[in-house]
Every structure is written in structure tokens, then in C-alpha cells.
Design brief:
There is one protein chain. It is built from ten helices and eleven strands. With 282 residues, the protein is α/β, with parallel strands linked by helices. The chain folds into two domains: 85 residues, 3-Layer(aba) Sandwich (Rossmann fold); 124 residues, 3-Layer(aba) Sandwich (Rossmann fold), CATH 3.40.50.720. Strand 5, helix 7 and strand 6 form a beta-alpha-beta unit. Helix 6 crosses helix 7. The longest helix is centred in the N-terminal third of the chain and has 21 residues. The radius of gyration is 19 Å and the shape is globular. The structure holds nicotinamide-adenine-dinucleotide.
């Protein structure tokens, strides 16, 4: 039987409506949530992502500031920009759009962001909080996956979740969130042996690899929930990491690409911004 398609567009739309209502309620209390995005250089994909974030903020009623720095800007200028945003009490969330041009030290910049304004959840303080089960900011993409599972009432506790990918942005926080929701979690990566043997045990399989068609039907247990985080450009089309046509005939639930996880990422960025403003209370 064909899998149920997890409709990221519909879930994100409803979620963003909730965000807009919450924003209005905060504004009525005198709190104007404010996200500042720092964009360095001319990377076309980054320009699109930043524009999408800006538009989503405006639509939700969240104040948005985009600071554009030149491709050849110095580390010092970038760090001064972030430090000024840290000090600016009107700014609740700070996001530095990645990747940065090669001459800039990304890790240093991310470390500089005030952890309480780190709405991307990339600061080590927030990774540590997630690891320790303390409140903090969690990266938006894995948070979005959790919202999709919730929206479709997919139970997690006691289930075997297999995450392919161990990046700080997706794989690791995804595994931590699933663990916190009481799944038994296996993390697979580029050095994992017998990958298909492990993925075939998954009740919930999350693919965050960055390779088109990487997860094939023979790697999936019948009835499993398959979450495709991948975004790959093939012949001008966006496709995921999962061989969608074949896997959707075998899985119980599946996210399409586009129209799945990607839709949720910005929605959760908005939610993190509201949380930052709420915690700040100013
Ligand atoms: P990354 O390159 O940092 O990590 C990829 C991971 O895949 C690594 O941990 C690596 O160990 C693993 N991997 C590579 N080859 C493998 C193999 N042969 N077998 C098993 N594991 C293997 O990428 P990332 O930032 O984690 O992103 C992963 C994908 O998700 C990319 O396609 C990216 O574009 C996409 N992404 C989507 C969103 C979204 O909003 N939907 C957000 C972030 C990233």
C-alpha cells in the first residue's frame, strides 16, 4: 500500500498561523519580536534563504532586519556586527546565514552569538543544553521534523529511530530530540558499516545525507516512517535523499521533497524567535 504523504506545506501553514496569532498577542503586551539576519556576500542560495526568512517574518508580524556585508568583509567587521546585535536590546534573535565565504572563521562567529539570541541553535551552549535536557534553542530543521511527527500522531516512544547523518545542524540534534522523546536511536554516518541492515530495523528513518536517491526501497522496513531532510539539485530540480517513487510504495509515512521538512524549517525559526523574545520579556 502507498505511504501516507506527510504534507509539510499544510502543517507549516497551520503552524505559521499559530505563530502570527502569538506574535499579535505579544505585541499587544508591548513585546515586538525581532529577528536580525547577517548575510555575508553574494551566494545565490543564501540570498534566497534570507529573502524567504525575511518574508516569513513580515507575514507573521515579526520585525526583521537583514544586515548585508560585502563578500570580502573582514572577520573583525563580522564580529563587530554580531557583537552590536548582542548588545541591542531590541533584537531577540540573531542568525548568521551559512555558509560564510571561505576566508571567514565560521566557528568563531557562531561562538560569539549570545546563546540567548541564538535562534538557529548552533551555539555549543545550546547543543549542550539539548544534550542535558535543559531548555535552550534547538536547530530548526530537526525541530520541524518533530512537529511533523506530532502533526501525524506518529508515536516515537519505544520505537527504533535511525538517523543517517551526524552533522551539528541536522543529524546530531535530530538524534537527541528523538532520544528525548524516548526512541531507541541509532546514528549512522559515512563510516557506518552494513548501513542497510541498520536502516531496515528503523520504525522511523531520517535521511540527512545530501545525496539524491541515497535511501532505496530495500533499505526500508515495510510500514516505516521515512523523513527526508535532504535537499539536492538534480537537473535543475530539487530532490531529497530518498528514492521517493519506490520508497513511498513501501513506507507507512513519507515526506516529499519539496513540500516536506523544508517547509517547517522557517516556521520553527519564527517559533524560536518568539521564544527568545518571550524569555527576554522586552
Ligand atoms: P552534512 O554534509 O553536514 O552531513 C551529511 C552527513 O551525511 C554526514 O554526517 C555524513 O557522515 C553522512 N553521510 C555522508 N555519506 C554517507 C554515507 N555514504 N552513508 C551514511 N552517511 C553518510 O549535511 P547536513 O548539513 O547535515 O545536511 C544534510 C542534508 O540535509 C543536505 O542535503 C542539506 O541540504 C539538507 N538540509 C535540509 C534542511 C531543510 O530545511 N530541509 C536544512 C538543513 C540541511
Amino acid at each position: 500500500m502507498a505511504a501516507v504523504i506527510i504534507d509539510g506545506r499544510a502543517v507549516a501553514k497551520a503552524y505559521k498561523e499559530g505563530i502570527a496569532a502569538r506574535t499579535q498577542e505579544m505585541i499587544a503586551r508591548g513585546i515586538v519580536p525581532h529577528l536580525a539576519v547577517v548575510l555575508v556576500g553574494e551566494n545565490p542560495a543564501s540570498q534566497v534563504y534570507v529573502r524567504n526568512k525575511e518574508n516569513a517574518c513580515i507575514k507573521a508580524g515579526i520585525r526583521s532586519t537583514v544586515i548585508r556585508l560585502a563578500q570580502d568583509c573582514t572577520q573583525e567587521t563580522l564580529e563587530e556586527t554580531v557583537s552590536a546585535l548582542n548588545k541591542d536590546a531590541s533584537v531577540h534573535g540573531i542568525l548568521v546565514q551559512l555558509p560564510l565565504p571561505k576566508h571567514l572563521d565560521e566557528a568563531r562567529v557562531l561562538r560569539l552569538i549570545d546563546p540567548d539570541k541564538d535562534v538557529d541553535g548552533f551555539h555549543a551552549m545550546n547543543s549542550g543544553r539539548l544534550m542535558n535536557g535543559q531548555p535552550g534553542f534547538v536547530p530548526c530543521t530537526p525541530l520541524g521534523v518533530m512537529e511533523l511527527l506530532k502533526a501525524y500522531d506518529i508515536s516515537i516512544a519505544g520505537k527504533h529511530a535511525v538517523v543517517i547523518g551526524r552533522s551539528n545542524i541536522v543529524g546530531k540534534p535530530m538524534a537527541m530530540l528523538l532520544l528525548a522523546a524516548n526512541a531507541t536511536v541509532t546514528i549512522c554516518h559515512s563510516r557506518t558499516q552494513n548501513l542497510a541492515e541498520l536502516t531496515r530495523q528503523a520504525d522511523i528513518l531520517v535521511a540527512a545525507v545530501g545525496r539524491a536517491g541515497f535511501v532505496t526501497a530495500d533499505m526500508v522496513k515495510p510500514g516505516a516512517t521515512v523523513i527526508d531532510v535532504g535537499i539536492n539539485r538534480v537537473d535543475g530540480q530539487i530532490v531529497g535523499d530518498v528514492d521517493y517513487a519506490a520508497v513511498s510504495e513501501k513506507a507507512g509515512y513519507i515526506t516529499p521533497v519539496p513540500g516536506g521538512v523544508g517547509q517547517m524549517t522557517i516556521a520553527l525559526l519564527l517559533a524560536n524567535t518568539l521564544d527568545a523574545a518571550e524569555r527576554c520579556g522586552c
